[in-house]
Amino acid sequence: MNVSRSLRNVIIIELFVPITLLILGIYHGLMQVVYRAGVIHQSSAVKLDYYQGLTLHGVINAIVLTTFFAVSFGHATIFFYLKKEPNKKASWISLGLMVVGTLMAAWAILAGKASVLYTFYPPLKGHPLFYLGTALLIVGSWIPLFDWLVLYRSWKKENPGKKVPLAVLGTLVNFIVWFVCTLAVAYEVLVLLLPWAMGWTPTVNVTLARTLFWFFGHALVYFWLLPAYIMFYTMLPKVAGGKLYSDLAGRIALFLFLLLSVPVGVHHQFSDPNISSTTKWLSTVLTFAVAVPSFITAFTLSASLEYAGRQRGAKGLLGWFGKLPYLDSNRYLFGYMIAGLILFIFGGFTGIVNSSYALNNVVHNTSWLPGHFHMTVAGPVFLAMIAMSLHLIATLRGRKIFLPKVNVIVPYLWMIGVLIFSFGLMWGGLMGEPRRTNLGMTYLNPQNELYHPQWVPSTMLALSGGFIMFLAGMLYFVVFFGTFFRKKTETAGLDLPVSEAYHDEKMVPLFNGFKPWIIVMVVIILIAYVPALVDVLSNSGPGAPPHLPHNPMPGI
């Protein structure tokens, strides 16, 4: 499918920039496990502080990569399915704001002026350019949504009575969730944190800032996840050699995410004493409800893959498992997606532990949480994003995949690394191993009186998994940049695998538009967050002066 030069360049830049920065993000991921395993017994290495590296790792991997990719993938799906190009001027303004915002935040972090982690919790204080850069990145990512909505409304007028393509529906669901949840963090950054960082206000309301962040922070997880879900429903059955079991199941799952993604953030604040137990109980119920679309997806994709296996000659109850194209270099997207889904099984079940108020108290702020986190974000999210980035770069530039046999083993090597790494973290978490902590300076330093030898096996296991992940990441970069700079040998254009539906149900108006769902979404958010905000504003306590990492005395 032919693409204008402008749109092609926008998508390519939105993929190339974050994948290039990802080199730095993965390097600092490796350094985290090196520090935590006690290999380094100091606060910094290679002129970068531990918390500086942790901030780079989180911001690049969890915010920059995911936001840039979601916008580029959104442009691709909207254009491919609606046959309408996004507005040229709006696309370039969006890209410009995102790049400038990223550079501003990157400067602040690399200069050691914003070691506040990707959650940027106050009273940790960053440079004003970090907060302003973050705001520009978010605003830049809003612009395409309003442009896509114009194209969507135009397509519906031209195609009355037709079903909106599932990928388009998913893209719009994702960015509606993103727009709603980022309103809170934009308020936090622009009204609370930026004036405080510039010295205009002496203190900041920490609990309000935390609540606003988690209004955004857990919905952010679904912003990461939904592009992968779009690929699972609309592409995975095709590359597996089969059909999507049910188109309607995909629509139900996507709209459930629209309803439930935002109002569950309070479960990140189970330990905050100024939020009532009733509010926390409601958040628990809503968080468990989010498992419903995941179970719908598990059934639908299993049925789709079983059909694919049987189409390829499988016999017996489970014979279809062995007939799927795991190592077919021409269907490498399958390997990335299936490896991500295997990790997601473990990530989903460990997430249920975090959702429970009682069980969460056992693992809160331990290494269990990043163990779970990497099962999801470094599993289906990351693998789907880097696979589609490679696919889009190859097709838009007319390049063949560089080292295809290496490419097809990357996702499985990454999967093995994540399983080992996350198991080490979760094992350590159950023994009380803290998260966000440079263990090498104290708990994993045999010369320190705080030395905890029981954490040596778990941190070394995590370290071994981290090395395997790092190796897989480096192999991916060889494939990606080798493909990018390879000579053109194919016809350049946009090509996405499209799965035909086995059960292509009739159009149901309720699952073909947004108005009733957005109304219900707003109602659920108000039910969940009005009590939480009342609790926080009624019990905030005094404002907090800044805390700088190099100075443990607040306000000095």
List its salient traits.
17 helices, electron transport, 4 strands, mainly alpha, 556 residues, two-stranded parallel ribbon
How would you describe what is shown here?
With 556 residues, the chain is mainly α. 67% of the residues lie in helices and 2% in strands. It contains 17 helices and 4 strands. The chain has helices spanning 5-36, 50-82, 88-110, 128-158, 166-197, 206-234, 236-240, 247-260, 277-289, 291-311, 332-355, 357-363, 368-397, 404-407, 410-430, 456-484, 515-538; strands spanning 44-45, 48-49, 244-246, 501-503. The protein has a two-stranded antiparallel sheet with strand order 1-2. The longest helix is centred in the first third of the chain and has 33 residues, at 50-82. Residues 13-512 form the Cytochrome oxidase subunit I profile domain.
